[in-house]
Write a structure and sequence with these properties.
The protein has 343 residues and is of the alpha/beta class. The protein contains 16 helices and 12 strands.
Length: 343
């Protein structure tokens, strides 16, 4: 039987929400101390961990007990050990290490932005002098530098959908708008040896993109284009234009304007590939809260950004001049992929 009772609020829930920042601080502190790395080889007591992390024994004991209290450690007598999954997400040598996500999501800038949520609600957008769309903002260097957490399957999903189609093309020229770390274009280039990637971003970010291209063995097929995505000449035309995790920074009107610019850079018969946070038409904040929570981040960090729905993405792509928009959601992908053709 489906539970149709409305949710109830109790004091414990409110207390957990009000003190939620303490859990974030615990995780951030443990990662900064490389505490989980120290436990990778087995359980240790508080005094030993204090010595290995250059911490005070009292401070370490309190930290360890609190981490165990929120499920990030387990106690074994007087010793502490990683819980199941800890080696995968909490140890820095793991390919799925979550430290990069914490460094970004719990950064001083993001914390400070949330302190002004009441002002953003009253204003309808960010009130910060430095925000997500500030030219050459150094936050985007951090974002590009910490990409291991970003491998959630969306780049692979995009490559899986584009590579068979590209095999029939005479050329495979790609423009990656706001390319950041370059993972989407480079994942595609590794599977399609004829692909050339042009990455557009701010010059301080493109230095990191170039290093990633070298690390992944595609530097000889990568060139950079620095500037603002709304004003810079894209060049081209290209067989594929990629626009990944960008459109939620803008209103529907602004996002459609950017897609219209992108359409002018796509060859007739070419494709656009868009990735973003989204929600389905039937979703509600109760059934799928994450995209609605993400809109809060956009509220404090941008002037008009928010999570757009799947129908809105289709509407924007069609309004920009693309045809046959369709969406894909992989098993691992946290974001949704949209692909459409230019007539």
């Amino acid at each position: 039987m489906t539970n149709t009772e409305p949710p109830r609020i109790d004091s414990k829930q409110l207390h957990d929400i009000a003190r939620g920042y303490v859990k974030t601080a615990l995780l951030r502190t443990a990662l900064e101390l490389r505490l989980f790395d120290a436990l990778a080889d087995g359980p240790l007591d508080a005094d030993t961990l204090a010595g290995r992390t250059d911490a005070h024994p009292r401070g370490m004991r309190i930290l360890l007990d609190a981490l165990a209290g929120i499920g990030l450690l387990r106690t074994r007598g007087t010793r502490y050990e990683l819980p199941d999954g800890g080696e995968t997400y909490l140890v820095s040598s793991s390919p799925q290490f979550f430290g990069g996500a914490v460094r970004l999501g719990a950064s001083d800038w993001e914390w400070d932005a949330q302190k002004h949520l009441v002002d953003a609600v009253r204003h309808g957008g960010t009130v910060a002098d430095t925000h997500a769309l500030t030219p050459e903002f150094d936050y985007w260097e951090e974002f590009a530098n910490h990409t291991s957490w970003f491998n959630n399957g969306a780049a692979e999903l995009m490559a899986e959908q584009l590579v068979p189609w590209a095999a029939e093309r005479d050329s495979v020229d790609v423009l990656d708008i706001a390319c950041s770390h370059g993972s989407y274009g480079f994942a595609f280039a590794q599977r399609e040896p004829r692909a050339t990637i042009c990455g557009l971003d701010w010059p301080n970010v493109l230095e990191i993109t170039r290093r990633n291209a070298e690390r992944l063995g595609v530097a000889d097929r990568f060139r950079s284009l620095s500037g603002d995505m709304f004003t810079t000449d894209f060049g081209g035309p290209y067989d594929i234009v990629m626009l990944t995790n960008v459109l939620h920074h803008f209103s529907e009107r602004q996002a459609t304007e950017l897609l219209t610019r992108a359409a002018q850079a796509v060859k007739p018969g070419g494709r656009i590939a868009v990735v973003g946070h989204t929600y389905d038409e039937g979703d509600t904040p109760e059934t799928n809260p994450l995209p609605y929570m993400f809109s809060v981040i956009m509220l404090v960090q941008t002037h008009e950004g928010q999570t757009h729905s799947v129908p809105t993405y289709h509407k924007m792509l069609t309004a920009a001049g693309f045809e046959n928009p369709r969406s894909y959601a992989g098993e691992k992908a946290m974001h949704r992929l949209f692909i459409a053709e230019r007539p």
